[in-house]
Design goal:
- This protein is α/β, with parallel strands linked by helices.
- It has two domains: 200 residues, P-loop containing nucleotide triphosphate hydrolases (Rossmann fold, 3-Layer(aba) Sandwich), CATH 3.40.50.300; 72 residues, no CATH class.
- The chain is 31% helix and 29% strand.
- It has a seven-stranded mixed sheet, sandwiched between helices.
- Helix 4 packs antiparallel against helix 5.
Length: 296
């Protein structure tokens, strides 16, 4: 069995009385582009900071590539991390960043870095502080990828970019993944971007995992069902109602049917955006059970 790139068990991170993450048990598989989605304050940045070794858990455990996060130089070299706002050094030139990356990373691939700089049209002599947001994002991606890591972690890397720069960044990301066969965890609240580049999904809300699994499997296992009021009161065993809306004449349900047994005239597929929003709305209620799909 392949070791998950991130594995947590009862992971909790508290800041005083506030739980940024609460009892999170999760396996993120290798070889995927995993989208980590949820509203602001859901715990996405906290989970990724824990994975990068920037902070420590209050309780529970987290392993990255089978080891403790930031356990040493060798472990640090296996993970590329780009924090929010794609931070770079404003007073250093693009070329300075590449030289710094080479000095700090024993596995640095200068050819990858230089080819990427040429491809994106970045001026090696230009200071990072004078780059556009999209150019800074491309520089940060280049620095992370040229480490030749096994795992790339991005915390909301495109949130502040305009649509054209966001598209260019995501295209570059997919090219890197194809060329380097690297696992990626990408947090975002832009569901369209997740749908475009990701094949695995984790939904975080209210500091807990709401659902996780392969996107295709999740799509296949969820249905919207519409029928006359009362006709959907009895469903096959194992079918879980995620959301329900009733009028005097009809009922509309979103159901989780992992075995694919639900075959009703009113059943239809549910899109990724509606699936995410359904779980986010449910999390606002008094109880939000955790659900994790098993990859096929």
């Amino acid at each position: 069995m392949t070791t998950p790139v991130i594995a947590t068990n009862a992971l909790t991170k508290r800041y005083g009385a506030h739980a940024a993450l609460d009892d999170v048990t999760l396996d993120i598989p290798a070889g995927r582009i995993t989208g980590l989605v949820g509203p602001n304050g859901a715990g996405k940045s906290t989970l990724l900071a824990l994975a990068a070794g920037l902070i420590r858990p209050t309780s529970g455990t987290i392993e990255v590539l089978g080891n403790r996060p930031a356990a040493g130089a060798a472990q640090l070299a296996r993970v590329g991390f780009v924090a929010q706002d794609t931070p770079v050094y404003a007073q250093l030139t693009v070329a300075d960043h590449l030289r710094l990356g080479e000095k700090l990373n024993p596995g640095w691939d200068a050819q990858v870095a230089e080819a990427r700089i040429r491809q994106t049209g970045l001026d090696p002599a230009k200071k990072a502080g004078r780059l556009s947001g999209g150019q800074r994002a491309q520089l940060a991606l280049t620095l992370a990828a040229a480490k030749r890591p096994e795992l790339l972690v991005f915390d909301e890397p495109v949130a502040a970019l305009d649509p054209l720069a966001r598209r260019s960044f995501l295209q570059s990301l997919m090219e890197f993944v194809a060329d380097m066969e690297v696992s990626v965890v990408l947090s975002s609240h832009l569901i369209a971007d997740v749908e475009r580049v990701c094949d695995h999904l984790v939904i975080l809300a209210e500091s807990r995992v709401q659902v996780a699994g392969e996107i295709d499997d999740l799509a296949a296992a969820h249905r919207r069902v519409v029928g006359p009021r009362g006709s959907l009161d009895r469903l096959p065993g194992g079918v879980e109602v995620i959301a329900a809306d009733h009028t005097p004449r009809q009922s509309t349900l979103v159901v989780h049917d992992p075995a694919g047994r639900l075959d009703l005239p009113g059943a239809e597929p549910i899109g990724l955006e509606d699936l995410v929003l359904t779980y986010l709305h449910r999390a606002e209620g008094p109880s939000a059970p955790i659900l994790q799909e098993t990859a096929r």
